[in-house]
């Protein structure tokens, strides 16, 4: 095992986590600002919706960096971590993060942009608001679970 390569991959892992988890938090906050603008109809909602849309890209970039660095660490130490319980549970939660953060988030983002452009957002508001809050809160909870698993390394 080369400790320098391993530690470099761990640094990159943390950079990826910062980008993805940080973007998730910003996404949550930005939706709240969008909601206030939309309900007050104060003219900022289009700009906020555009900003919400652009955040999606960083969720994907962060995920790629996390995956690449995680795989690099596993190449070095797969026989140690691969068999441990925390790692297996972490991989299951990771799958849920991908489905929720990249799949569901993209779908609700698309329907928000569509409803905003065809003027039907008022009709769909309750469902849109609930879906955004749910996806973002659940995503933050998944991140917290992965942090605890990765740091305590229960086995
Ligand atoms: C959303 C996805 C992920 C998050 C939030 C995450 C988070 C973390 C955190 C917080 C640590 C602890 C760092 C430390 O001890 O200093 C860690 C370590 C680790 N992660 Fe991830 N991780 C993710 C995905 C992955 C993936 C996909 C893999 C492998 C395929 C992976 C492999 C590892 C390994 C091997 C360690 C142990 C490093 C060590 O303590 O020596 N992670 N991860």
Note the main attributes of this structure:
155 residues; 4 helices; binds protoporphyrin IX containing FE; transmembrane
Shape: elongated
Largest sheet: none
For the secondary structure, the number of strands is 0
Computed CA radius of gyration, to the nearest angstrom: 18 Å
* Count of distinct structural domains: 1
Q: Summarize this, please?
A:
90% of the residues lie in helices and 0% in strands. It contains four helices and no strands. Bound molecules: protoporphyrin IX containing FE.
Describe this structure in words.
Keywords: Membrane, Transmembrane, Transmembrane helix. The chain crosses the membrane at residues 6-34, 55-73, 85-104, 132-152. The protein has 155 residues and is mainly α. It has one domain (3-152). 90% of the residues lie in helices and 0% in strands. The chain has helices at 3-40, 45-81, 85-117, 121-152. The longest helix has 38 residues, at 3-40. It is elongated and about 60 Å long. The two termini are 22 Å apart. The structure holds protoporphyrin IX containing FE. Protoporphyrin IX containing FE binds next to helix 1, helix 2, helix 3 and helix 4.
């Amino acid at each position: 095992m080369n400790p320098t390569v391993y530690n470099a991959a761990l640094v990159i892992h943390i950079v990826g986590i910062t980008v993805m988890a940080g973007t998730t938090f910003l996404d949550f906050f930005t939706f709240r600002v969008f909601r206030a603008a939309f309900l007050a109809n104060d003219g900022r909602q289009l700009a906020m919706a555009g900003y919400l849309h652009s955040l999606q890209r960083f969720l994907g970039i962060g995920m790629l960096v996390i995956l690449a660095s995680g795989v690099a660490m596993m190449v070095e130490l797969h026989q140690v971590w691969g068999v441990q319980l925390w790692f297996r549970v972490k991989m299951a939660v990771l799958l849920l993060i991908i489905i929720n953060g990249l799949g569901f988030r993209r779908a609700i983002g698309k329907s928000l942009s569509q409803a905003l452009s065809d003027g039907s957002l008022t009709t769909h508001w309750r469902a849109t608001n609930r879906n955004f809050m749910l996806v973002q809160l659940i995503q933050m909870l998944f991140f917290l679970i992965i942090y605890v698993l990765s740091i305590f390394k229960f086995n």
